[in-house]
Write a structure and sequence with these properties.
amino acid binding; Asp/Orn_carbamoyltranf_P-bd; alpha/beta; binds norvaline; globular; four-stranded parallel β-sheet; 14% strand; ornithine carbamoyltransferase activity; 13 helices; Rossmann fold; Asp/Orn_carbamoylTrfase_sf; binds phosphoric acid mono(formamide)ester
Length: 299
Amino acid sequence: MRHLLEVDDLSRSELLEVLACGAAPVSPKCLEGQGMALLFEKPSARTRNSMEMAVVQLGGHPLTIRPDEVGLDVRETVEDVTRTLCGYHSIIGARVFEHSKLERMVGVSSVPIVNMLSDEAHPLQALADILTLADEFGGVAGLAGRSLTYVGDGNNVARSLAIAAGMVGMSVRIATPAGYELSQSDLARVVAAGVDIDCTRDPVAAVAGADAVYTDVWTSMGQEAEAVRRRAEFAGFTVDDDLMSGTSAESIFLHCLPAHRGEEVSDAVLEGPRSRVWRQATNRMHAARGALVWLMEHR
Ligand code: CP
Ligand code: NVA
């Protein structure tokens, strides 16, 4: 039984298989007549829609469960919810605050568990990010030796992205303000995945010559009380035309979305010719389908 809580749950060759499944035309109906439970503790536009449509494309039935309907560890325990859902569904996805809830699900589950975002990781996003980079730079094989710079908060998206990009051979630079770096344990995990990573507090130096620049919100879901302080502490980390002017001539801009125009990214960059964010959002569905096909094959 295989699960997907973080990109490095896959070996490099398995990651390439998942990406190939995602890039392939829709054909296998590996979820025919079966259900996938999609549990959400947080809001979602892309993840819910891309997962539901991926399940439909594979012949299955997606069942989205809002936080007020189940109440993980509120109405009943994570373990009891998981064991119950295993009786109805062939696969379970969950978007949670504490990553440990996903690990607890894995501990009792008889079906694959998929991380649809936790406070630590967002692997399905990272798969879509790699598909988007591959679309641009000559396939996954064309990514080796390319450089990716992430500017902003050293968060769940940054960690999964760094692992995925490094695993396909990209060099990774991360520019964060002081105090917002990847944690030591996250960094150790990225390094253990064999990633060539460079961390800095200087966004201008970090984007110099980069093939791709990526950012995410400064305030993630669950951190809303810190928004004012974060806005002040992230000053100078907005990805705008000035910052993009230091990148390679063919560089692209990526953002997992939702975006806060005027904070982590300027409107001009988000809407500009280098932006690939809408293709990236669409690739969430292809990445999700790839992950589901692969997980169902490896039950
Ligand atoms: N990028 C992403 O996960 O978007 P949602 O939060 O809307 O699902
Ligand atoms: N870092 C953001 C990503 C949203 C898709 C969050 O966790 O809210």
